[in-house]
Amino acid sequence: MRVLAPNPGPFTLQGTNTWIVGARPSLVIDPGPDDPEHIREVHRESEPVGAILLTHHHPDHAPGAALLADRSGAPVLAYRPMANERKLAGGAIVPGGDAILRAVHTPGHTRDHLVFFERESGALFTGDAVLGQGTSMIDPPEGDMAAYMRSLSIMLSLAPRVIFPGHGSAVWSAVEKLREYVDHRKDRERQVLAGLEDGPRTAEELVPGIYSEYPLELYPAAARSVLAHLLKLAREGRVTRIGRPVDERFALASGASCERCGRPVMPGSRLCDRCGVAALQEAPPATGRTREAGGGAHIRPSSETTDGRDST
Ligand SMILES: [Zn+2]
Ligand SMILES: [Zn+2]
Fold first, then answer.
1. Which of 10, 59, 79, 153 is an S-S bond match for 112, by CB 3.0 to 4.6 Å?
2. Residue 59 Cα, ligand 1 centroid: separation in angstroms?
3. Which ligand is nearest to the CA of 58?
4. What is the CA(134)–ligand 2 centre distance, in A?
């Protein structure tokens, strides 16, 4: 059963779906925002509650959990528990009165994202990983496109019959929807790579070419999504990051690798950014050859720390 929270908006569609699964006791997924009227209604429909499950901790899904826990006495379970919540690991089984949910860790939208699968009925409760309409927001650094695409494959492997999303209507062609999501991201990735063929670009510079049919007010959100693709491609060595973090651009990787460490390098360079800096420091000053050895303008000493943060 669905109870719709009164928080409609551009990212929440009609509002957040609070799902009540089974009965005596029921399992409640995503109580939604901290709205007493909504929580009262959820409690009325779900009593007695066996457990409150969170797909993730965004403000449109989780804050109501504490209110519902107070009213029902049920524990709140989450992948990364906050105060007064309990840990729910990927693969964990949560039994209700007449339904059993399995938690599946599906990072991508957030790192702590879970979906819940009811094997008997084939129902998959997807939170913000799959929506009833449109696509899921992948916003770095908490959003991770590579992890998200792996999570889509994991959800496909469950062969669900129906998707009950965090926003929007139920999707009865569940596998088709997941395939559509995978194809959509692959198409976007191809468009991002094609957009770099004319030279280095920022995420913002790539947006008009890729989203030409979308209204301008969507461009900032689209740029976050393009950035998520670029960071994934950079980690795979298919694009290279150039410049300081404030004016960073992305370029197609040359296919060549650094002579010292084997990381991808910019076209025409023998060394990657990091080894280029090391070479500069080792070289005797004022020989006039150090810039060439280091790959010239592509030196960006901070690249390591930035990469490290994105991949944790
Ligand atoms: Zn979210
Ligand atoms: Zn949401």
1. 79
2. 8
3. 1
4. 12
Question: Which residues contact residue 282 at a Cβ distance below 8 angstroms, ignoring those fewer than 6 apart?
Answer: none
**CB within 8 Å of 266: residues ≥ 6 apart:** 240, 242, 251, 254, 295, 298
C-alpha of residue 9 to centroid of ligand 2, in Å: 10
Looking at the DSSP assignment, which residues form a beta bridge with residue 114? Answer: 105
Q: How many Å lie between the centroid of ligand 1 and the Cα of residue 159? A: 23
Spacing, Cα 127 to ligand 2 middle (Å): 7
Q: How far is the CA of 167 from the centre of ligand 2 (A)?
A: 7
According to DSSP, residue 13 is labeled: B
Q: Give the distance (Å) from ligand 1 centre to CA of residue 55.
A: 9
CA of 147 to the centre of ligand 1 (A): 15
Contact 18, 2 (CB under 8 A): yes
- Per residue of the chain (312 residues), give pLDDT as tens: 999 999 999 889 999 999 999 999 999 999 999 999 999 999 999 999 999 999 999 999 999 999 999 999 999 999 999 999 999 999 999 999 999 999 999 999 999 999 999 999 999 999 999 999 999 999 999 999 999 999 999 999 999 999 999 999 999 999 999 999 999 999 999 999 999 999 999 999 999 999 999 999 999 999 999 999 999 999 999 999 998 878 889 999 976 677 888 776 766 778 877 888 888 888 765 554 544 444 444 444 444 444 434 433
Strands 100-105 and 17-21: unpaired
Q: For residues 129 and 110, give the distance between their C-alpha atoms in angstroms, rounded to a whole number.
A: 9
Is 1:20 a contact under the CB 8 Å cutoff? yes
**CB-based contact 132:167 (threshold 8 Å):** yes
